[in-house]
Design brief:
The chain is built from ten helices and eleven strands. By secondary structure, it is α/β, with parallel strands linked by helices. The protein folds into two domains: about 150 residues, Nucleotidyltransferase, domain 5 (2-Layer Sandwich); about 170 residues, Nucleotidyltransferase, domain 5 (2-Layer Sandwich), CATH 3.30.420.
Length: about 350
């Protein structure tokens, strides 16, 4: 087997590796989750995450190679996500990728983790899904992009406070549902009434490509625990009340996300929408996006559920950069934190 690349992902709390051929066939995709390590804290602890990557990266890479049937000598390149993310976690993946690139004498290709989420939207179709408007919605990011090509993304706008996935995690804590918040809130909401509580939909009609979820999170907090300074009695958090709050919160998030996608499509004069990231796995959100496609006529490509949360299969973006000669040197560094305003080549 020849002409395959190895992709490494370690931007946050998932240690992942994948082997991908030039036709973007995913030959293996191995993910070691850290959920059990961070669950007691209700969120990701950076130091714990980076130490877990150190322990798990070599076994994950070894398993990815074995499951694909590839050997180290078959690799045409090493691809690694270097931005954005947790600095310690990113450095673990980049250090391993540099070592493999140097030892095997193959190109090193660095990719943007968030842009790779959007590239993953085309993995089921077998074609590059550009140009398009892109929405990445996860625990760390809620960003809108104008995606002109696989190597040309412009950030249009983002959340001004909490990311949508972060709001799911915090609301899950308030409702005592556990971690991570997305799956547990979706499960609780199935038994709830999404119209039970009129939670705010911040910036819903603001034409700017900006989002906000902090006020929504606070509204849930006051609903559960009472408004500070108020003597009003707060109803007990029964299973039904919890389900109604979860459903109403979820509906508010989905309404805002869909409206902002509509605005961006119209303003950018695009006919295709890409949606990736962990929150894109939410069933209510996916149904709302299907409705958006039906009424607007735009094509909506949502990342396959197995590629919504962090993984290395979306490192297939590395082929697009490799084919354009966009290699990285051994002096490549990580770019933690927020995404840049523009990413162009």
């Amino acid at each position: 087997m020849k002409d395959v690349l190895l992709a490494i992902e370690s931007s946050c709390d998932e240690t992942a590796a994948a082997v991908i051929d030039r036709n973007r066939n995913i030959l293996s995709n191995v993910v070691a989750t850290q959920t059990e390590l961070h669950e007691p804290f209700g969120g990701v602890v950076p130091e714990i995450a980076s130490r877990a990557h150190l322990e798990r990266l070599v076994p994950v890479v070894d398993r990815a190679l074995r499951e694909s049937g590839a050997e180290l000598g078959d690799l045409s390149a090493i691809v690694v996500a270097t931005e954005p993310g947790l600095v310690g976690s990113l450095l673990v993946g980049l250090s391993a990728a540099k070592a493999l690139s140097l030892a095997l004498d193959v190109p090193l290709v660095t990719i943007n983790h968030v842009e790779a989420h959007l590239y993953a939207c085309g993995l089921e179709t077998g074609r590059e899904p550009f140009p398009a408007i892109g929405l990445v919605v996860s625990g760390g990011h809620t960003n809108l992009y104008d995606c002109r090509s696989p190597v040309e993304f412009e950030l249009l706008g983002s959340t001004i406070d909490d990311a949508a996935g972060e709001a799911f995690d915090k609301v899950a804590q308030i409702l005592e549902l556990g971690f991570p918040g997305g799956p547990v809130i979706e499960a609780a909401a199935r038994n709830g009434d999404p119209r039970a509580f009129a939670f705010p939909r911040s910036m819903l009609n603001d034409p700017r490509p900006l989002l906000s979820f902090s006020g929504l999170k606070t509204a849930v907090l006051y609903t559960v625990r009472g408004t500070p300074g108020s003597s009003a009695e707060v109803p007990p958090l029964t299973d039904q009340r919890r389900a109604d709050i979860a459903a109403s919160f979820q509906a508010a998030v989905v309404d805002v996300l869909v409206r902002k996608c509509e605005q961006a499509l119209r303003q950018g004069n695009r006919q295709r929408l890409l949606v990736g990231g962990g929150v894109a796995a939410n069933g209510v959100f996916r149904s709302a996006l299907a409705d958006l496609s039906a009424r607007s006529g735009c094509e909506v490509l949502i990342s396959p559920k197995e590629y919504c949360t962090d993984n290395a299969a979306m490192g297939a973006l590395g082929w697009a950069r490799l084919e354009r000669g966009l290699f990285a040197g051994l002096d490549a560094d990580v770019v933690p934190g927020l995404v840049r305003k523009k990413s162009t080549e």
